[in-house]
Fold each of these.
Amino acid sequence: MSNIAILEVDGKRYEFPMLKGSENEITIDINNLRSVTGGITTLDPGFKNTSSCESAITFLDGEKGILRYRGYSIEELAEKSDFLEVAYLLIFGELPTKVQKADFTKEIKKNNIVDEDIKKILDGFPRSAHPMGVLSALTSALTAFNPKSVNVESEKDMFKAVCKILGKFPVLVAWTYKKEEGLPLAYGDNSLGYVENIIKMMFERPNEKFVMNPVVVKALDKLLILHADHEQNCSTSTVRVVGSSQTGLFASLSAGISALWGPLHGGANQAVIEMLEAIKEDGGDYQKYIAKAKDKDDPFRLMGFGHRVYKNFDPRANIIKEAAEEVLNDLGIDDPVLDIARGLAKEALSDEYFKSRNLYPNVDFYSGIIYRALGIPVPMFTVMFALGRLPGWIAQWKEMRLRKEPISRPRQLYTGAPLRAFVEEAER
Ligand code: SDX
């Protein structure tokens, strides 16, 4: 293959270098396109065909259903690792040694208390506030209590900032949940593991002896691993764009939370359960909903189906589907919504409309069934996605800043009015 791409415009030829990634992906470097062509740009709404950056963090192959964090397959990590270790891998590039993991855990535990005044901000929200809006606000508010911006060039400073947010974020998640439920805010217990602490902060009740369920710990740990990063998805791109103006880490993460909230992105896990519940209420007739999803005049989409990149299967969906079956069996839960999900997926996967458009269950299709089995309320599902995606956002923000990427500032194709003179009000 040539390492040059040629563009010909009005008989003039322009050459651009072709770059090859470590997994043999090819891209055309158009860094100087506008300057050498006198102003020509490319148009690519949604950036479906555009690589926004070079990155060494996550590799995914949509055709082959491959997902790897720093070269390790998601299947191996979900089976053999744990969420905190995967967070270290994504952020610092290698699986931690025993000593590194101990230091990481210790520094995080030193930082898992938030300023008491955060409670005053939480008090200001109505209980009906969507947890994603609350979490985004509280995350941004952390900047007020930690105003010193991180010196990304200092490994020590970066390590402390990473441990600070990894320590405080689960508290914000748990308190966001407690606020929605009208329950007292509580801290965890530093003698517990990272995920155990999250579960204790969320589910312990003041008047009951709390019993940690290892099935719940294992299921949540696996779910968080599966959500930890996904290259340049909408919310991660948002964190990079906001961070590219040298906005601080916490404020950049807050922007990512808002981007994840949308039903076409992380908000889909909530929309999936709402859709499955509606089908259940409607007598379980999922064929009717498949017909709606295929009807061009009906805005309804089969939530949890389809993906911008995965055009065969989402490897995470397969792992989560298995985990959902395990959790429901282990907890002795018979959830009719899982049966509807199974039937819906089976029907859609054999339907020409979905097959011809490469629409398969994605990460959000089954995750809500596990969250429900763990007793997490539906509005909190996307918050749990954010909890999982946190290390990926941090890793991508850090990489972008360390590589000194330029401020994100795309161009446009202007299609508005040509120059025209001002019209006085009397003449309008
Ligand atoms: C996540 O990017 C990431 O990596 C995201 C994520 C991550 O980990 O960060 O993986 C997490 O966001 C998963 C996706 C969750 N969203 C949903 O489940 C919402 C439902 N799915 C979609 O709306 C849709 O599939 C997207 C948004 C996920 C992808 O949309 P694309 O790639 O822009 O595809 P498209 O909208 O151009 O659709 C192509 C065709 C269209 O039909 P035609 O115009 O060709 O006739 O497929 C149809 C669409 O109408 N289509 C669907 C559909 N998804 C696409 N039809 C019915 N139901 C659907 N779910």
Amino acid sequence: MPHKILILPGDGIGPEIVAEAVKVLDVLRADFGLDAETEQGLVGGSAYDATGTPLPQRTLDDAKSADAVLLGAVGGPKWEPLEIAVRPEKGLLGLRKELALFSNLRPAILYPQLASASTLKAEVVSGLDLMIVRELTGGIYFGQPRGVRTLENGERQGYNTLVYSESEIERIGRSAFEIAMKRDKRVCSVDKANVLECTELWREVMIRVGKDYPQVQLSHMYVDNAAMQLVKAPKQFDVMVTTNMFGDILSDCAAMLTGSIGMLPSASLDANGRGMYEPIHGSAPDIAGSGKANPLATILSVAMMLRYSLDEDGLAQRIESAVSTVLDQGYRTPDIFAAGANEVGTAAMGDAVVTALRANA
Ligand code: NAD
């Protein structure tokens, strides 16, 4: 059976960067034996314009029957005046919810060729390759009760609830351990078990799940120390697994270690390995249509898709080494440009990756 991939270009630079990822998929199908069918759909502002909703039923049905979804980006100033229920971002959030994508994978990889793009010293970050696994559908962002209430003395009080059930912790734990098995086999679980009972349970369940993965080394770190260690010595980490809110904060911090938003892919997985893959950046309305967007984050999202949803690790590695080759060759889109490099636009960067893929066949 061929793999089924739904492609959702979205808004702004989305269609431009996704077109380059599609070139890569086409080469893998033509020259490297990838057995996959692709279909395109609408999401975000462009879906709203065409159908009146940012997440058409057809897109949702197609996503549910696909093995993986590749998404560009959604949003832009054109749709900001719309009411929240039909804003482009609702398309993305709706997909995550309806597909039960609870495991958010945010790698932070710094190719040695781009070490000078980081605000940290090159020796601290060069060669960085860490994976943050963030729980995406539970925790304090969804816990009940929540709200703002008025106390007897008339003062208002805001409150939210941090809740995790054992089963929620266990499934994100398994997701992290499974990923570690495909990497350096080290998991660091980040919590605040010294203060929050909920994350005391988190730690207890992580230890229990870890017993099923004896090859993986499990360690624990309080979130405040983890934030410090991420900027002090980020290369100590392989896989970090943490709650929704801690992961939200730490993954943005880790992304910035690399200095370039145009290089970072992400994945959101369900319990069966089906996933949605997208660059971490947005629709970049400021450069949309100019042909300057960096397509590498989207191309690297295809690599993640091959590894985590389609069980094609060899093809994933081919894409990653082709990206490394084009960086070695000096190709740079403007966002990662440095003196002496060969500045190229979106399509030329995609073409360079395709050429490198074919050359390494
Ligand atoms: P953004 O990530 O779109 O852009 C931030 C900056 O990074 C801009 O200067 C942009 O030009 C640059 N940039 C982003 N991607 C790039 C790439 N591939 N190559 C070169 N430069 C790149 O964030 P923003 O400006 O805060 O948001 C713009 C729109 O995107 C908003 O509507 C926002 O809601 C939406 N957004 C969508 C997603 C998503 O679809 N997952 C994520 C974040 C923001």
Amino acid sequence: MQSVLVTREIFPETLQRLAQHFQVTPNEGDVQHPPGALAGQLAGHEGVLVAGGERIDAALLDANPQLKAVCNMAVGYNNIDVPACTARGVLVTNTPDVLTETTADFGFALMMATARRIAEGEHYLRDGRWTRWSYNLLTGSDVHGATLGILGMGRIGQGIARRGALGFGMNVIYHNRSRLPAEQEAPINARYVSKEELLREADHLVLVLPYSAASHHAIGAAELALMKPTATLTNIARGGIVDDEALAEALKRGTLAAAGLDVFEGEPNVHPALLTVPNVVLTPHIASATVRTRRAMADLAADNLIAALTGQRAPTPVNPEVIR
Ligand code: GLV
């Protein structure tokens, strides 16, 4: 019988499904192992369900030539060296589609919380500072009718754009590696613009692009300087796309009105400067975190693992070229 390792605690139902096909090594107690330990733990396993963004690199693959499938429980897979997997015939899968709408809901919610200063307001109230009404108490910026900028117009970006255009009458502009076909732009009246125009014109800029060497610090001091001082920036994509130090500086100086961040470079550590500025809403990487969606992600990761190791076609491969 083949063996699979599950790196983190997941739904018992998912473990039970895997156990119908494989010998399963779960992570009982959700133990936090040191980063280098996974290579040794994988010994003797043909498959791994990567449930917590653990790094899968060439050294780990070389130590585990028996490994055939790496199934990520996330849509983003920057934790996995895909070319190294492909070169060794290891199938990589991710969990697209099942989290699109849930993540778009969260992106929109975080953008709204940022624009309308909801977290600041809550802290103000809890701190006992609310003693009377003032005409300018925590005044933010409108979402309805504003210009929504989307950097990275994939499935989730389109979901946010749809919410903005159809629900809030927003004017949608976007920048992406490739332009959407006209029939996808038309229903939301989305206008493709250069990155510079996006930065200059957006009232609310939302980042939804994948992380790669090319998108590292895609938003740094120079990009932030192009944005309107009244604008907001929301990142639900990956830490490292934004230069957190430059962002904290812009927020402190007021050259950017506010930011909403669900992801951080080096998370779960958060740049200390971000913790000292009030005009940022900080959440712990929870954009896909609804019970239903997390269950769907676990199920899809398990479907991929079962298919990959039982000679069937994995539903959502990242490197389908390794399937012969
Ligand atoms: C979450 O960040 C994911 O990539 O699914």
